C-alpha cells in the first residue's frame, strides 16, 4: 500500500495468527481440564465435609492422624478418578477424541489409581480395618445405582402397546429421577464420615452410624434445596412457593423430627442440634424472602459455606458435650 512499509501487512497477519494460536491453545487447555477435572464442584464438599466431621468427632477418642490422611488420599483419588475414566470410556458428555487427549487422560488415570491403591493398601494391610471393605461396598453400590438412575433421565419409557412410539419422560419425572440419583449418590459420598471415624478409633458402632445419618440428612437437605431453588427461580409469593415446594417443607419437618428422636435415644448430644439450625433457618427463609435473580454459582458457594458451618458446629458440640 502507498506509504506503508512492505513489512506492515505480514506483521498484521503474523499478529492475527498469534492471536488465533493463543485462542486455540487456551481452548485445548480448557478442554483438557474438562476431560480430567470433576465437574460436580458441589460434590467435593459432600465428600470432604463428612470426612472432616467424622475425624473431628473421633478426636475425642483417638489422635491417630495417619489413617485418616490415607483415607483422605484414597477418597480424593477415587472420586477424581471417575471423570477421566468416563472421558476415556466415552460414557460422559466430554470424551477424549484425539490420541494426545487419550494419552493425557490415561496418565491421570494411572496416577490417581496408583495413589488410591497405595493408600488403601496401607490401610488394609495385614487384615487391618476390615470394616472398610463393607463401607466401600456400600458406597460402590450407591454409586452404581446412581449411574443407573442417571441413565434413565434421557431414556424413553418402553411403549405400552406394540408398535407405539417411545415417548420421552416428562420434565417432572426427569427432575424426580435427577434428584433421586443425587440423593443416592450422597449416600456414597457421606460414607466418608463413618469411615474416618472408624479408621481413627477402630470402632464401627452407634457413633459411626449416627455420623453417617447426620451427614446424610444434612446433605440430602442441601440437594433438595438446590433443586428447589433452580426449579422455582421465577416463582413469586409465599403461597406459590409453598405450592411448588411443599415436599421440601415436609422434608424440613421430618428432618427436625428425626434429629430430635436421635437425641432422645441418646445417639447424639442435644447440643449437636445447633449445627442444623442454620440450614433449617435458610430453608424456611426461602418461602418468605423477596424474589431475586438466581445466580447458581453464588448459590453453590452459599451451600458450601453452610456445610463448613455445620462441620464446625457439629464437632464443637461433641467436644463440649464430652
From TrEMBL:
Top-level taxonomic group: Bacteria
Keyword Membrane appears in the UniProt entry: yes
InterPro entries (alphabetical): YwiC (IPR025576)
Transmembrane segments: 41-59, 65-83, 104-125, 131-149, 179-200, 206-226, 246-264, 270-288, 300-321
Entry keyword set: Membrane, Transmembrane, Transmembrane helix
UniProt name for this protein: UbiA prenyltransferase
Organism expressing this protein natively: Candidatus Sulfotelmatobacter kueseliae
Organism taxonomic ancestry: Bacteria, Pseudomonadati, Acidobacteriota, Terriglobia, Terriglobales
